[in-house]
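Handoff note, outgoing to incoming analyst
You'll be picking up this chain. Sequence as last confirmed:
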Amino acid sequence: MLIRSSIAIFLGAGLVVMGGYFLAQPSGTRIAGSLHAQSRAALDAAGAAPVEARFTNRFGSPTRHPILTGGEGLNEGIRLQAAQAVAAIPGVGGVNWIDGVASAANDQPVYEPLHCQEDVEGLLRVRSIRFEEASSELVPASQVLIGEVADALRPCLGSIIAITGHTDDSGTPVGNLELSLERARAVREELVRRGIPRDGLRARGMGSDDPVEGLAASDPANRRIEFSVVRTEPLTPHPVDTPGAR
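Most recent structure output, in case you need it:
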């Protein structure tokens, strides 16, 4: 009797979850449609008419975190304005370009490389951060490697750490770009869990556009994560912030 009651409770909970999911879908679609319409007006006003903000993920589900596409010929200033215009719309979450090279929050000063990059590259020279096929889910063995990467990055906290995802060319160009960005974000979240501050991490995806030198674009070894560790320019104290003689 107890087992039957447990089964009934389990099935009932499952029906509630499924019902909530299917009821939420039309609402999510309406919200995404509204955000898309507002983004179209914002992009036109920013002088970025060729740019499109997609409020669906690679599975076609609605999302508040748009991916910007198009406008490859625009300069970086216009691309930044486009991302900022979309990010300013109420209800919009994080904004990223599909190529990962610009976002609403990456207006950074000039950087110089730091020694931690060499340490990380040493770790990744003979091992790779790997994922399940066609997925952003890390294989269990890569969790250990990411822990070692986090330890190597820790002496350089306060720097900007770029995490770049790559794929082979087995999928579509758009799908590869989105998958590489999702993988870079997955690695970013693992680093955050290990104590690396999120505000210093930048995730971007390159798809299959930058294969390993000497390898064909179809080679599975192109499915990789790369890191770039850079130092920001030191802050210049403002007179108001600098105490005078006492």
